[in-house]
Amino acid sequence: MYTISRFSQLCKMSARMLRHYDKEELLKPVLVDTTNGYRYYDQSQLDTALRIKKLKEFRFSLTEIRTILQSSDSTIFIGMIQTKIGEISNEMSRNRQIITEMQGLIEKKVDLLHGVKRSYDISLGIRNEISVVSQRLQINIDDMDRYIDSLYDNAKERNIQLLGVPSTIFFDEQFTPEQCDIELMIPIVHRNDEEISMSSEWQIKKLPQNIVATTLHFGSYDYIGYAHMALEEWAESNGYSMDGPPYETYLKGSECDCLEEEYVTQICFPVFKKQMQ
Known about the structure:
The protein has helices at 4-11, 15-23, 45-57, 62-70, 74-107, 144-157, 225-237; strands at 2-3, 31-32, 39-41, 123-127, 130-139, 167-170, 180-188, 203-207, 210-218, 240-242, 247-252, 264-273. The protein is built from seven helices and twelve strands. Strand 2 (31-32) and strand 3 (39-41) form a beta hairpin. By secondary structure, it is of the alpha+beta class. The strands form two sheets. Strands 4, 5, 6, 7, 8, 9, 10, 11 and 12 form a nine-stranded antiparallel sheet that branches. A three-stranded antiparallel sheet has the order 1-3-2.
């Protein structure tokens, strides 16, 4: 048997890390001396230690590693490897996108400390009454694309003809990415005499005619708050008040497999003219 110090030399792991793996029940010593607490390992555990080390290099979490070590089914391991490859590939794509954006800032000589003030053109118009298929959700904002895809699939299964791209209403007073209270909507062709069977998660409803103030935001969603602020300032300056929650319509987004700087989002504020005092 090997002391923890010697075993750490053999597997090139720190004694602190080995104690942590013992606590996480990934690699427990074969013997712990009850009198002094010394840990001892045997030769057969070197293979397990090196597997853990390699799986950590593959970016698996300790929970995932425990699952792999406890399973003798190679198909489970292959499936987890394929999932991890997808996760790492997505992260690499995101990192390449970040690098491209950072290089663009340097090339354009953007003032990185003070940023760039954005300007928005505001339009006032009328949104006619329209039918939409919608769902109210509380979700992690990162999962929104998946729910939008589900909305499209739900409409297709019921032969519902879609008229446009998805929109989102955010209802949270305080934004929490992990649990957003939102409503997804897509306009549809819907006759009054047409009965459509919907699941309990989805509904079809009519949005009334509204006066709306709108603007277009180009680029990352991270900066979309500037567009909302521009609409709020315009409404205040021109004597309008909100007549319902604002909504965002995604004219061009991640589904287009394009750079974030090419995203186009329309922000709409339902408004009404305030009475003059």
